[in-house]
């Protein structure tokens, strides 16, 4: 399907699929959404939670929908700020092209030290291999369908950033969330921008304790699910 680069509400870019009228990130602000959903209510929440002993060590993150690499990039930036060691697994069935990556403006928008070289490194490293991006962050990009994930109690946090249920309902089912539940360590969390009742019920059906949280700009609510210890 055709994909286009568009500017979102906070000035940062994302990729749009016109045929679906769907974007990789919120049209109200790609960077704003990523920080609110995945950093504030995901990484920061876990870091400041009762799992503090674990959070002083290496945190393992599984991203469902590596896409543009934005979520990985801002997590890398936050790892340095928090003095964390991150082991990041990015799963993506249809990788973004080099031309699309070069058209994204995240490094200019975030204005962080060495940001351009680090963002490029995230995308230039070969798939299916673990790479040390910097002292705080290791990355493995996995090209696979979400239904094929076999991880077992391997991750502290899941960033669930799949395309919305309106266009890909098969990614928001009990079957998929059962895979996510198995992939998390006890006391692990899953965060997503989604807030539909059907999504929340699917999460609860497989054992997650789910809470509604204030959503990012342009969205009333989001969800965070916890796998209890």
What is the fold's blueprint, element by element?
Blueprint (H helix, E strand, L loop, with lengths): L3 E4 L5 E5 L4 E2 L6 H18 L4 H4 L2 E7 L5 H13 L2 E7 L6 H6 L2 H5 L4 H10 L5 E5 L2 E6 L12 E6 L13 H10 E9 L4 H9 L3 E6 L6 E6 L3
Parallel strand pairs: 4-5, 4-8, 5-7, 8-9
Antiparallel strand pairs: 1-2, 2-3, 6-7, 9-11, 10-11
Helix pairs in contact: 1-3
Give the C-alpha Rg.
16 Å
Strand content: 25-35%
Briefly, what CATH class?
A: Alpha Beta
Q: Which fold name fills CATH's third level, the topology? A: Rossmann fold
At the fourth CATH level, what is the homologous superfamily?
Vaccinia Virus protein VP39
Q: Indicate the percent of residues in helices.
A: 25-40%
User: Major sheet, described briefly?
Assistant: 8 strands, mixed
Structural class computed from helices and strand pairing: alpha/beta
Give the beta-strand count. Answer: 11
The CATH architecture classification is: 3-Layer(aba) Sandwich
Strand order of the largest sheet: 6-7-5-4-8-9-11-10
Give the count of structural domains: 1
Total of helices: 8
Shape estimate: globular
């Amino acid at each position: 399907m055709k994909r286009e680069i568009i500017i979102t509400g906070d000035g940062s870019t994302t990729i749009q699929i016109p045929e679906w009228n769907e974007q990789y990130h919120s049209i109200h602000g790609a960077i704003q959404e990523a920080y609110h959903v995945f950093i504030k209510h995901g990484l920061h929440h876990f870091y400041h939670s009762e799992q503090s002993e674990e959070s002083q060590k290496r945190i393992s993150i599984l991203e469902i929908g590596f896409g543009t690499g934005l979520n990985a990039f801002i997590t890398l930036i936050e790892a340095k700020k928090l003095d964390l060691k991150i082991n990041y697994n990015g799963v993506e069935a249809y990788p973004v092209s080099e031309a699309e990556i070069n058209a994204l403006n995240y490094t200019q928008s975030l204005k962080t030290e060495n940001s351009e070289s680090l963002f490029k490194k995230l995308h230039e490293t070969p798939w299916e291999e673990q790479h040390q991006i910097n002292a705080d962050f290791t990355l493995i990009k996995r090209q696979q369908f979400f239904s094929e994930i076999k991880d077992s109690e391997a991750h502290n946090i899941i960033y669930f950033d799949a395309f919305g249920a309106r266009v890909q309902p098969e990614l928001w089912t009990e079957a998929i969330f059962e895979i996510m539940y198995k992939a998390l360590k006890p006391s692990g969390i899953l965060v997503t921008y989604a807030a539909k009742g059907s999504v929340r019920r699917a999460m609860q059906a497989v054992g997650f304790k789910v809470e509604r949280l204030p959503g990012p700009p342009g969205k009333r609510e989001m969800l965070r699910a916890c796998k209890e210890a």
